[in-house]
């Protein structure tokens, strides 16, 4: 895996992945930014949510479940020190579909958390408390 991060000005950077996708990162005005992009730590949080969501959707689809939506609502806490690392991350999955069983969704979330989500497992190994819950919406 490859990526580049190019400084633009102030505290704005453009990150480009090896697959050719780009994203703007910037800071708030009080840190020299113009608030024109997401913060690097927000990128990390989105990575955890994207990684885990990918797993949950794949597991449910492979089990031939009829899902029509999956939203991961993430909340995180950071320590009040430098570096201001994450201390806690909570993922709340809202999975919608037809005839979904709560036990099936619970299993998918658990498999992602314990076996498949590289981002969450890596952060957990570094001491971040990561928790998950879910709700199922019948549509």
From TrEMBL:
Q: Which Pfam families match?
A: OsmC (PF02566)
Q: Write down the superkingdom of origin.
A: Bacteria
Under Gene3D superfamilies, the record lists: 2.20.25.10, 3.30.300.20
What PANTHER family does the record tag this protein with?
PROTEIN YHFA
Name by which UniProt lists this protein: Protein YhfA
This protein's species is: Crenothrix polyspora
Task: Cite the source lineage.
Answer: Bacteria, Pseudomonadati, Pseudomonadota, Gammaproteobacteria, Methylococcales
